[in-house]
Amino acid sequence: MKILHVLDHSVPMHSGYSFRTLGILREQRARGWDTCHLTSLKHTREGPPEEEAEGLVFHRTPMPPGRGAGAWPLLREHALMRATEARLIEVVRKERPDILHAHSPALNAVPAVRVGRRFGLPVVYEIRAFWEDAAVSHGTARAGDWRYRLTRALETWAVRHATAVTTIAEGLRGDLLARGVPPEKVTVIPNAVDADAFRTSGRRDPDLEARLGLGGCVVLGFLGSFYGYEGLDGLLRALPDIARRRPEVRVLLVGGGPEDARLRALAADLGVADRVVFTGRVPHAEVQAYYDLVDVLVFPRARIRLTDLVTPLKPLEAMAMGKPVLASDVGGHRELIRDGATGWLFPPDDPAALAAAVDRVLADRARWPAVLEAAHAYVEGERSWRAVVARYEGVYGPLVPPSRRRPTSAAPQPADMAAEA
User: pTM of the prediction?
Assistant: First the structure.
């Protein structure tokens, strides 16, 4: 069985999206499935038309002549889909897959559906977040405006015309069912991690600790991208209250993003700049040393549709490496964390509640070993890539006739492929 994955972007670009893709592809190959891969124009890192990264070959979509990133909205998205569709036709003829597996957004799913029809191939559409909600969270659209409604309609069209649909969270599945999508069409294949990849030394690097001024401190940490929905402003607003109760606490923010400048200004306005360490982005190979400095990882996501429907990767990574996790009680976090059992939850958008939760967790260190053990067992048992990717068998299986479940080199050619080869 050969699966052609249609992707927004991939490694060597680093993001939660590309890391999930990498986990899926590696485990699918470990199961004996053949995979090939195409990225859209949104893979903006320069490279050859076919590029090897992390031991995988990715087909890239070239920018059409005369089509730049500055095109008008709608025209830009239409051009992106047309470019993806044209490149996908080329790759299908070359790779001869059994299944097209398009990953969100709908800008990838629509070309996949059209090409699937052309070649008589089934299409799986994997939704990691709704494109319209992501646009709202990034400030490029407003909930309910014409662009939001149009994007939502495009997503719904893609879901209805795909052969099968997967989502990364129960919240996303529930939203699709409310749109009238048949329950049997939608399978949840959640986020996962490779627990072995997140082993920590358990020791702080003394030089890094000294350089950041964190010696003798209790460190609350966040490592990732600084978007508004992450709620990092709430963590800073809670810090004066936390400091009054526990003056030894410092906040370590590793990363960057659209909120970076605003967060630095807010820390100064609140009078806590001396208690917050902003490192900026750090090389991926050095991230673990920063994790080792953290006592409690805090994920204070704000409550919006995106955070209620989508489960993030970062808390799972923290649980895998044996770090205490304190997170806001939004839907995406509730699918990962059982309060007091595998981590701790607090009411979202409430700095006072966050401050009280920090005090409660730090006062309850005797319970940490049991909580951390339960969290690690949950990740290994239910959120490993081996356990999660096994669910694709139930999605792919009904789409591929037994006669085509043979070595890829012997797979028959769909009629259109043979006619056009």
Answer: 0.87
